[in-house]
Prior knowledge:
The chain is mainly alpha-helical. Helices cover 58% and strands 6% of the residues. One of its GO terms (cellular component) is nucleolus.
Amino acid sequence: MRLDPCYFCSTKIFPGHGIQFVRNDSKIFKFCRSKCHRAFKKKKNPRKVSWTLAYRKTNGKELTVDPSFEFEKKRNIPVKYDREFWMKSLEAIRKIDIIRSRRANHFVMQRLRRAREIEMQQEVREVQRDMSLVRLPVAGLRARLAAKERESQVEEIHDSDEEMEVTNAEEMEVPNAEESDIEEEMNESDEAPELVEVL
Length: 199
Ligand SMILES: [Zn+2]
């Protein structure tokens, strides 16, 4: 029993099914159903129609490169009938079918896993980008307020230090007007109080 593939969608055509079209250059096109025949008559490209095997293979959705495909090649060499050879071939076909289906399933699973990884990366990127929408506006408010208070306290301390420096400078006895000017300038810098004490 010969099972030819559909010209358009590449599924098997069982005997008594489908339709056959012979072009005037005697090339035979077999179709599994009227859907495929109609698509062919509309001159659709099977590689651009998403439900065909040709599309799936061109878009990397099916296993295409595998040594198991070598067995199915058409060979135009006449073979003399040999019962033993015939039986061996049938057994080999069965084994190869199992191996190929296993490899195809593995390929699909790998593809799906890769797709899941990419999806996860995209989701993480999206969340990181729109973090302001995810986070509550109140979240971390207490910590922020505490930090602000601490900053203001530090500023107050700095201000009081400066006032103290100014009072110290005023208390000092000033012999000359020129020297007092110099001292005032020095008070502005951090090392000023020590220098004043030395003088
Ligand atoms: Zn078909």
